[in-house]
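Thread: Modeling a multi-component assembly for a lab meeting

Hi all, long-time lurker, first post. My supervisor asked me to bring a structural picture of a complex we are working on to next week's group meeting, and I have zero experience with this. I have the sequence lines for every component (817 residues in total). Could someone generate the structure of the whole assembly? Inputs are pasted exactly as I received them:
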Amino acid sequence: MSHPSETLQMRTSDGFVFHVSLEVAQQMGMTHSWLQSERVGLERSDDDDANIMPLDRVSSEIFRLVLNWCHAMQTIEKPLEPKDKLLQERAIFQNLLTESNANDSTIFELIIAADYLNIESLLQAGTQHVADVINGCDSVEAIRERFNIMYDGAVDN
Amino acid sequence: MSLLAFGGGAEDGSSSDTEPDALIDFTAMLMERKHECNGGWFSCGSKLQSQSHEDHGYYLGQYVLGVLDFSSQYGIDYSISYTAANVIGRPTKFPAYGDYPETFTMRTYGDWWQLAPSATQEIQAQNLPSLPTHDFIVVYFEKFVVPTEVAIFETFNPGGVVRIWAYSITKRWTCLWEAKPSDLNQVPHDSRRFAPPLKKTNIITKTLRIDFNHSRLNYYTEIDAIMLCGRTVPMRCMHQLLAPVGKRLGNTGEESGNGPIICKLRTLKFQPSCQANDAVKLHEFINNDLSKFLMDSHVESEQQKHNSTTEICLTDLPCEILLKILSYLDLKSLFRMGQVSHLFYDISTHPLLYCDLSLKSYWQLANSELLCTLARRATMLRKLDLSWCGGFGEISPTEFKKFLTQRGDNMTHLRLNSCKFLNASCIETVGIVCDNLIELSLRNCTTNPPLLNFSCLANLKNLERLDLFQTAFESELLLSMLESNRKLKHLNLAFCGVSVNMDNVATHLATYNTQLVSLDMWKAHFLSARGLQSLSRCQQLEELDLGWCMREATLGDSLYQLLFNCPKLKKLFLSAMRGITERDLMHIATLGKNLEQLDLMGILNITHERVYDILVHCSKLKLLDLCFCDNFMDRDFDVIADWSRLFNVDIKNSRIYNSR
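Re: Modeling a multi-component assembly
Sure thing. I ran the full set together rather than chain by chain. Output:
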């Protein structure tokens, strides 16, 4: 099924075109639906535009991180217990963040991109990461400070 | 486990020298006022000064007067071997180190039960602390004190204690000490008087709860005694403290060391401004108001994001993603999140976050009010775990029944282990309302007369798992439940007592429950070769625990039949079954291809050739318990140790505690 020599062209919202191997692109659920609906095969045609998959909601900066994630996913040894697999994915996500000096905004954009591109593993790792941060906050005030949320009046009685 | 520990009431006197009257013991200690064992307790001056000490209080150390509750014990209640009652009074064996029946021992050790076919998944696992509690014991002492030290006398495999709680006179539980993972690393293979540094506190208590975690234990841990040291409170102070309880509650927030959030959790009175259906409100909010709300909160559109360098914040994420994030939070953080802002209140109260609900990790906070609040949110409840909650009256049976009636009809999993608030009418409600239950766990429900009687649960017909560990029930009810629940896969009847005839149960299982995968009959009575033979009709069996059953009975070829017909057996516990012959052991080797855990403790006819046989043929074996197989010579143990390494099998033998 996977053709390592085959690449897919993907264009991000800011106009950058990435050449992504089909194997990596297959990790994104969005690729499947696009391939099915738009194209029949991967023949090169004269009209290059039709071969390029548009990613209108993802910027190049975020997409680079997404690709880092997908590449890291490929290097995981396949047969793992679900618990260990989750731990490993969280570790990989952590690395991804530290390597790119990601701030909160980047993390959220990454989560939104994972949702848009339909990459379940990245979405899970990202949302779990944010949940861990929340779990680490000791009080309501700490949560508000950490995420810059405005206090909009008393909620409890 | 020692074979001196017969299940009957007639114990030979030589096995124990437990002091029969702890009260006299304690008074004697007070009179003597001198240091006892290493570390001892604080001396209190002479009797002449006792009068002034009555005014000011004095230091004392006291041993357990009685046991209020325990989640698990190895022995059976009417025995004095390896039961929770052994923790009462002075230590009898300490400082000796070894496997003694005069101590308190729990039923499990290590991870073996989590690896067995009968293992369950935790409900709402994110609520668990990093060192979760597996078992607990609640003990009380004679005098109220302000605690300064709690000493636990461990006489075998120390290192199981992870938490110490104290119940103050203001009816709050305080955690006096909690283990960090590093605490469990360097534990000596020797008896010890374990007295960890307690939190500084002013609470007054005479009731303690000790939490245990077994996962790092090599074998059973055993507790000889527990001592509570502290300063007594003079009578006049006690009156002052007990009288204006209302006022004192204001201070107990600090005393019990709980912050405002936990106080909030205790006094939850969430009352949304609208009385309408929460789910509908959220739906409307998301459809109509959310975009406006987000706009008001300065969320930029796609175009602006590209042009400006403004950051995205948490509130910019779509609701489904926020819901996903919140679904990973433990219950405490979830409630906290709900107080952050109106948006998060609405999301945090979404019913999808309350499909799996467990208050087990918050047992000390769970009360009727919390149940009431949760009832409003948990409209899609499927799995509920209220284990350990409401032990001191914090949850009323009425509130529980109301909760069940509102939310129980779609419930698939219900765990009510060690729930002291349960009464007969609660169980009846379970039977009537929760007819979709696949799993029902009612461990440690030993009331007299038993709560499980007549036909209170006969309405349940979809059960796949029924856990009645350490719970009394009427035979008729069980038999009728077996007949109705043909899909039953896991059944735990450990410690069910003398009133249940296991042969009858076995015959019923063979007729109605042939899908059975795991069966625990630990210390069952009246199981004979005939019963064992019936069990061979349950050909899907993967786990069978017959420990301390069929003590002297001859098996005939019933074990052979079982092994032949149940090739899927992975876990087989035959502890103290003296009727096992050498032929049986040969059959185990030839037929037990899938065996992973094998307990042959106390089998007398075992030779090391048979052990070798089993090790060679049972290639998947991971655990082999050979303790108290007195047939082995000392030199055999060295050989067995070699085999343990060679075949990569964890072999337990009675020599463990002799080697340092």
